[in-house]
Amino acid sequence: MTTENIEELLLRHGVKPTAQRVVICEYMIGTKSHPTADDVLQAVARKLPVALSRATVYNTLNCLVNAGIIREVVTEPDRTRYDANMSDHHHFVDVKTGKILDIPAEEIARLHPTIGDNYKVHSYQITFFGEIVKNK
Amino acid sequence: MTTENIEELLLRHGVKPTAQRVVICEYMIGTKSHPTADDVLQAVARKLPVALSRATVYNTLNCLVNAGIIREVVTEPDRTRYDANMSDHHHFVDVKTGKILDIPAEEIARLHPTIGDNYKVHSYQITFFGEIVKNK
DNA sequence: GTCTTGGTTTAGACTTATTCTAAATGCAGA
DNA sequence: TCTGCATTTAGAATAAGTCTAAACCAAGAC
Fold first, then answer.
1. Considering only CB atoms, which chain B residues are within 8 Å of A118?
2. Which of A39, A53, A130, B95 is most buried, most CB within 10 Å of its CB?
3. What is the pTM of this model?
4. Is A9 in the same domain as A66?
Protein backbone atom coordinates (compact mmCIF):
# COMPACT_ATOMS: atom_id res chain seq x y z
CA MET A 1 0.00 0.00 0.00
CA THR A 2 1.36 3.40 -0.95
CA THR A 3 1.73 6.31 1.44
CA GLU A 4 -1.01 8.19 -0.43
CA ASN A 5 -3.37 5.28 0.10
CA ILE A 6 -2.57 5.24 3.79
CA GLU A 7 -3.35 8.94 3.99
CA GLU A 8 -6.67 8.37 2.27
CA LEU A 9 -7.45 5.49 4.60
CA LEU A 10 -6.79 7.70 7.63
CA LEU A 11 -8.84 10.58 6.24
CA ARG A 12 -11.69 8.24 5.39
CA HIS A 13 -11.74 7.22 9.06
CA GLY A 14 -11.58 10.81 10.28
CA VAL A 15 -7.95 10.74 11.38
CA LYS A 16 -5.63 13.55 10.43
CA PRO A 17 -2.70 11.93 8.61
CA THR A 18 0.42 13.18 10.34
CA ALA A 19 3.82 11.75 9.43
CA GLN A 20 3.92 9.63 12.59
CA ARG A 21 0.45 8.25 12.07
CA VAL A 22 1.07 7.41 8.43
CA VAL A 23 4.22 5.48 9.14
CA ILE A 24 2.72 3.61 12.11
CA CYS A 25 -0.43 2.78 10.17
CA GLU A 26 1.64 1.69 7.20
CA TYR A 27 3.61 -0.66 9.40
CA MET A 28 0.47 -2.12 10.97
CA ILE A 29 -1.16 -2.72 7.58
CA GLY A 30 1.99 -4.33 6.24
CA THR A 31 2.57 -6.86 8.99
CA LYS A 32 0.85 -10.11 9.75
CA SER A 33 2.45 -10.34 13.16
CA HIS A 34 0.57 -9.00 16.14
CA PRO A 35 3.00 -6.42 17.45
CA THR A 36 3.03 -4.76 20.85
CA ALA A 37 3.40 -1.00 21.17
CA ASP A 38 7.08 -1.53 21.79
CA ASP A 39 7.45 -3.69 18.67
CA VAL A 40 5.89 -0.88 16.69
CA LEU A 41 8.24 1.66 18.19
CA GLN A 42 11.30 -0.44 17.36
CA ALA A 43 10.18 -1.09 13.81
CA VAL A 44 9.01 2.39 12.96
CA ALA A 45 11.41 4.71 14.78
CA ARG A 46 14.15 4.50 12.15
CA LYS A 47 11.78 5.35 9.30
CA LEU A 48 11.11 8.83 10.65
CA PRO A 49 13.54 11.73 10.29
CA VAL A 50 12.78 12.85 13.86
CA ALA A 51 12.69 10.96 17.13
CA LEU A 52 9.50 9.04 17.78
CA SER A 53 8.15 9.19 21.29
CA ARG A 54 6.77 6.18 23.08
CA ALA A 55 3.74 8.26 24.02
CA THR A 56 3.04 8.97 20.36
CA VAL A 57 3.05 5.27 19.57
CA TYR A 58 0.48 4.66 22.29
CA ASN A 59 -1.57 7.69 21.24
CA THR A 60 -1.55 6.63 17.63
CA LEU A 61 -2.39 3.00 18.26
CA ASN A 62 -5.31 4.00 20.49
CA CYS A 63 -6.35 6.49 17.87
CA LEU A 64 -6.32 3.81 15.15
CA VAL A 65 -8.30 1.46 17.38
CA ASN A 66 -10.94 4.13 18.03
CA ALA A 67 -11.10 4.89 14.32
CA GLY A 68 -11.74 1.22 13.57
CA ILE A 69 -8.61 0.78 11.50
CA ILE A 70 -6.92 -1.76 13.77
CA ARG A 71 -8.04 -3.78 16.78
CA GLU A 72 -6.59 -4.82 20.10
CA VAL A 73 -5.79 -8.46 20.69
CA VAL A 74 -5.81 -9.61 24.30
CA THR A 75 -4.04 -12.93 24.63
CA GLU A 76 -1.57 -12.21 27.41
CA PRO A 77 -2.35 -10.36 30.59
CA ASP A 78 0.71 -8.12 30.60
CA ARG A 79 0.73 -6.47 27.19
CA THR A 80 -1.65 -5.39 24.48
CA ARG A 81 -1.11 -6.51 20.92
CA TYR A 82 -2.54 -4.90 17.79
CA ASP A 83 -3.90 -6.35 14.58
CA ALA A 84 -4.73 -4.54 11.34
CA ASN A 85 -6.65 -7.53 10.02
CA MET A 86 -10.22 -6.36 10.53
CA SER A 87 -11.87 -9.33 8.86
CA ASP A 88 -13.95 -11.73 10.92
CA HIS A 89 -11.33 -13.90 12.49
CA HIS A 90 -9.98 -15.29 15.73
CA HIS A 91 -6.57 -16.20 17.06
CA PHE A 92 -4.39 -19.19 17.60
CA VAL A 93 -1.50 -18.85 20.03
CA ASP A 94 1.36 -21.31 19.74
CA VAL A 95 2.16 -21.93 23.40
CA LYS A 96 5.72 -22.92 22.55
CA THR A 97 6.77 -19.92 20.49
CA GLY A 98 4.12 -17.37 21.43
CA LYS A 99 3.39 -16.93 17.73
CA ILE A 100 -0.12 -15.72 17.02
CA LEU A 101 -1.94 -16.78 13.88
CA ASP A 102 -5.20 -15.52 12.44
CA ILE A 103 -7.94 -18.09 12.03
CA PRO A 104 -10.70 -17.03 9.62
CA ALA A 105 -14.13 -17.31 11.25
CA GLU A 106 -15.29 -19.86 8.68
CA GLU A 107 -12.43 -22.16 9.58
CA ILE A 108 -13.49 -22.36 13.21
CA ALA A 109 -15.80 -25.29 12.64
CA ARG A 110 -12.83 -27.45 11.67
CA LEU A 111 -11.01 -26.58 14.87
CA HIS A 112 -12.54 -28.96 17.35
CA PRO A 113 -11.13 -28.91 20.88
CA THR A 114 -9.63 -32.32 20.24
CA ILE A 115 -7.61 -32.07 17.03
CA GLY A 116 -7.63 -29.91 13.94
CA ASP A 117 -5.86 -30.45 10.67
CA ASN A 118 -3.01 -28.09 11.41
CA TYR A 119 -3.32 -27.28 15.07
CA LYS A 120 -3.33 -29.21 18.29
CA VAL A 121 -5.56 -27.22 20.59
CA HIS A 122 -4.70 -27.42 24.27
CA SER A 123 -7.37 -25.00 25.38
CA TYR A 124 -9.34 -22.11 24.09
CA GLN A 125 -11.27 -19.25 25.47
CA ILE A 126 -14.21 -17.37 24.05
CA THR A 127 -14.85 -13.93 25.46
CA PHE A 128 -17.97 -12.00 24.57
CA PHE A 129 -18.18 -8.27 25.10
CA GLY A 130 -21.57 -6.65 25.28
CA GLU A 131 -24.48 -5.75 27.50
CA ILE A 132 -26.73 -7.75 29.74
CA VAL A 133 -30.29 -7.39 28.50
CA LYS A 134 -32.19 -9.38 31.07
CA ASN A 135 -30.36 -9.77 34.37
CA LYS A 136 -31.45 -12.79 36.36
CA MET B 1 -16.86 -26.17 51.52
CA THR B 2 -15.17 -26.83 54.84
CA THR B 3 -11.55 -26.07 55.59
CA GLU B 4 -10.81 -29.81 55.78
CA ASN B 5 -12.21 -30.27 52.31
CA ILE B 6 -10.04 -27.45 51.00
CA GLU B 7 -7.00 -29.10 52.52
CA GLU B 8 -7.89 -32.38 50.88
CA LEU B 9 -8.42 -30.63 47.57
CA LEU B 10 -4.99 -29.05 47.77
CA LEU B 11 -3.32 -32.31 48.79
CA ARG B 12 -5.07 -34.14 45.99
CA HIS B 13 -3.51 -31.67 43.58
CA GLY B 14 -0.07 -31.96 45.14
CA VAL B 15 -0.10 -28.64 46.94
CA LYS B 16 0.96 -28.40 50.57
CA PRO B 17 -1.96 -26.83 52.42
CA THR B 18 -0.51 -23.91 54.35
CA ALA B 19 -2.81 -21.53 56.21
CA GLN B 20 -2.43 -18.86 53.50
CA ARG B 21 -3.13 -21.26 50.67
CA VAL B 22 -6.18 -22.73 52.37
CA VAL B 23 -7.78 -19.37 52.98
CA ILE B 24 -7.02 -18.09 49.48
CA CYS B 25 -8.27 -21.27 47.87
CA GLU B 26 -11.38 -21.21 50.05
CA TYR B 27 -12.11 -17.69 48.92
CA MET B 28 -11.63 -18.57 45.25
CA ILE B 29 -13.91 -21.60 45.50
CA GLY B 30 -16.55 -19.58 47.30
CA THR B 31 -16.83 -16.69 44.87
CA LYS B 32 -18.48 -16.45 41.49
CA SER B 33 -16.79 -13.16 40.74
CA HIS B 34 -13.54 -13.18 38.82
CA PRO B 35 -11.23 -11.46 41.26
CA THR B 36 -7.84 -9.92 40.57
CA ALA B 37 -4.89 -10.66 42.84
CA ASP B 38 -5.60 -7.42 44.63
CA ASP B 39 -9.25 -8.33 45.15
CA VAL B 40 -8.11 -11.57 46.71
CA LEU B 41 -5.69 -9.76 48.99
CA GLN B 42 -8.38 -7.35 50.19
CA ALA B 43 -10.89 -10.09 50.82
CA VAL B 44 -8.59 -12.58 52.46
CA ALA B 45 -6.15 -10.48 54.49
CA ARG B 46 -8.47 -10.01 57.46
CA LYS B 47 -9.21 -13.73 57.77
CA LEU B 48 -5.63 -14.54 58.68
CA PRO B 49 -4.15 -13.92 62.11
CA VAL B 50 -0.90 -12.67 60.54
CA ALA B 51 -0.24 -10.14 57.80
CA LEU B 52 -0.67 -11.47 54.28
CA SER B 53 1.93 -10.39 51.76
CA ARG B 54 1.05 -9.38 48.24
CA ALA B 55 3.80 -11.69 47.02
CA THR B 56 2.15 -14.62 48.76
CA VAL B 57 -1.13 -13.91 47.02
CA TYR B 58 0.61 -13.95 43.63
CA ASN B 59 2.63 -17.04 44.55
CA THR B 60 -0.46 -18.86 45.72
CA LEU B 61 -2.63 -17.94 42.76
CA ASN B 62 0.09 -19.05 40.34
CA CYS B 63 0.50 -22.20 42.37
CA LEU B 64 -3.24 -22.94 42.19
CA VAL B 65 -3.23 -22.30 38.45
CA ASN B 66 -0.31 -24.69 37.94
CA ALA B 67 -2.06 -27.28 40.08
CA GLY B 68 -5.17 -27.02 37.92
CA ILE B 69 -7.40 -25.83 40.75
CA ILE B 70 -8.19 -22.43 39.28
CA ARG B 71 -7.58 -20.80 35.91
CA GLU B 72 -6.55 -17.43 34.61
CA VAL B 73 -9.05 -15.32 32.74
CA VAL B 74 -7.61 -12.83 30.29
CA THR B 75 -10.21 -10.25 29.36
CA GLU B 76 -8.33 -7.03 30.01
CA PRO B 77 -4.76 -6.36 29.02
CA ASP B 78 -3.65 -4.79 32.29
CA ARG B 79 -4.64 -7.29 34.96
CA THR B 80 -5.12 -10.99 35.38
CA ARG B 81 -8.32 -12.37 36.81
CA TYR B 82 -8.82 -15.80 38.34
CA ASP B 83 -11.69 -18.25 38.20
CA ALA B 84 -12.25 -21.38 40.28
CA ASN B 85 -14.97 -22.60 37.96
CA MET B 86 -13.11 -25.30 36.04
CA SER B 87 -16.11 -26.54 34.09
CA ASP B 88 -16.24 -26.08 30.34
CA HIS B 89 -17.35 -22.50 30.01
CA HIS B 90 -16.56 -19.14 28.50
CA HIS B 91 -17.01 -15.54 29.53
CA PHE B 92 -19.29 -12.65 28.94
CA VAL B 93 -18.02 -9.18 29.82
CA ASP B 94 -20.55 -6.44 30.40
CA VAL B 95 -18.83 -3.49 28.76
CA LYS B 96 -20.76 -1.04 30.92
CA THR B 97 -20.03 -2.47 34.36
CA GLY B 98 -17.04 -4.69 33.66
CA LYS B 99 -18.94 -7.55 35.25
CA ILE B 100 -17.86 -10.97 34.02
CA LEU B 101 -20.32 -13.83 33.76
CA ASP B 102 -19.70 -17.48 33.09
CA ILE B 103 -21.39 -18.92 30.02
CA PRO B 104 -21.62 -22.72 30.02
CA ALA B 105 -20.20 -24.19 26.82
CA GLU B 106 -23.54 -25.74 25.86
CA GLU B 107 -25.20 -22.33 25.96
CA ILE B 108 -22.83 -20.92 23.35
CA ALA B 109 -25.02 -21.99 20.45
CA ARG B 110 -27.76 -19.63 21.59
CA LEU B 111 -25.38 -16.69 21.71
CA HIS B 112 -25.35 -15.52 18.15
CA PRO B 113 -23.29 -12.39 17.39
CA THR B 114 -26.54 -10.52 16.73
CA ILE B 115 -28.77 -11.07 19.74
CA GLY B 116 -29.11 -13.67 22.45
CA ASP B 117 -31.91 -14.11 24.93
CA ASN B 118 -30.15 -12.34 27.77
CA TYR B 119 -27.16 -10.69 26.19
CA LYS B 120 -26.52 -8.17 23.48
CA VAL B 121 -23.15 -9.12 22.07
CA HIS B 122 -21.09 -6.25 20.68
CA SER B 123 -18.09 -8.35 19.82
CA TYR B 124 -16.39 -11.53 20.83
CA GLN B 125 -13.02 -13.09 20.57
CA ILE B 126 -12.00 -16.70 20.48
CA THR B 127 -8.43 -17.48 21.40
CA PHE B 128 -7.00 -20.94 20.98
CA PHE B 129 -3.87 -22.01 22.79
CA GLY B 130 -1.93 -24.97 21.47
CA GLU B 131 0.72 -26.16 19.06
CA ILE B 132 1.09 -25.88 15.34
CA VAL B 133 1.20 -29.38 13.88
CA LYS B 134 1.73 -28.63 10.22
CA ASN B 135 3.26 -25.23 9.52
CA LYS B 136 2.51 -23.91 6.06
C1' DG C 1 3.13 37.14 4.93
C1' DT C 2 2.20 37.18 9.89
C1' DC C 3 -0.74 35.91 13.87
C1' DT C 4 -3.54 32.94 16.28
C1' DT C 5 -5.61 28.70 17.57
C1' DG C 6 -6.06 23.99 18.46
C1' DG C 7 -4.48 19.65 17.80
C1' DT C 8 -0.07 16.75 17.92
C1' DT C 9 4.27 15.33 19.56
C1' DT C 10 7.75 15.03 22.93
C1' DA C 11 10.60 13.68 27.14
C1' DG C 12 10.23 12.39 31.25
C1' DA C 13 7.67 11.72 35.45
C1' DC C 14 4.16 8.91 37.27
C1' DT C 15 1.06 4.90 38.16
C1' DT C 16 0.04 0.27 38.68
C1' DA C 17 0.40 -4.84 38.15
C1' DT C 18 3.57 -8.23 38.79
C1' DT C 19 8.07 -10.33 39.78
C1' DC C 20 12.35 -10.57 42.21
C1' DT C 21 15.34 -10.73 46.25
C1' DA C 22 17.16 -11.65 50.46
C1' DA C 23 16.03 -12.33 55.07
C1' DA C 24 12.92 -14.41 58.43
C1' DT C 25 9.83 -18.08 59.55
C1' DG C 26 8.20 -22.46 60.48
C1' DC C 27 7.06 -27.17 59.66
C1' DA C 28 8.90 -32.18 58.92
C1' DG C 29 12.03 -35.51 59.58
C1' DA C 30 16.52 -37.25 61.85
C1' DT D 1 16.06 -30.70 70.00
C1' DC D 2 18.44 -29.78 65.68
C1' DT D 3 18.67 -29.27 60.75
C1' DG D 4 17.10 -28.48 56.23
C1' DC D 5 13.94 -26.91 52.96
C1' DA D 6 9.91 -24.85 51.40
C1' DT D 7 7.11 -20.84 52.40
C1' DT D 8 6.24 -16.23 53.62
C1' DT D 9 7.43 -11.56 54.04
C1' DA D 10 8.53 -6.50 53.04
C1' DG D 11 10.27 -3.88 50.05
C1' DA D 12 12.96 -3.09 45.89
C1' DA D 13 12.89 -3.75 41.00
C1' DT D 14 10.67 -4.20 36.49
C1' DA D 15 7.75 -3.08 32.79
C1' DA D 16 3.45 -1.56 30.35
C1' DG D 17 0.90 2.18 29.85
C1' DT D 18 -0.82 6.96 31.11
C1' DC D 19 -0.24 11.71 32.33
C1' DT D 20 1.74 16.33 32.14
C1' DA D 21 3.50 20.46 30.62
C1' DA D 22 6.13 22.45 27.19
C1' DA D 23 7.37 22.69 22.38
C1' DC D 24 5.81 22.22 17.77
C1' DC D 25 3.27 22.74 13.68
C1' DA D 26 -0.33 23.15 10.21
C1' DA D 27 -4.52 25.80 8.76
C1' DG D 28 -7.41 29.53 8.74
C1' DA D 29 -8.03 34.73 9.84
C1' DC D 30 -6.50 39.01 9.02
1. 132-136
2. A130
3. 0.88
4. yes
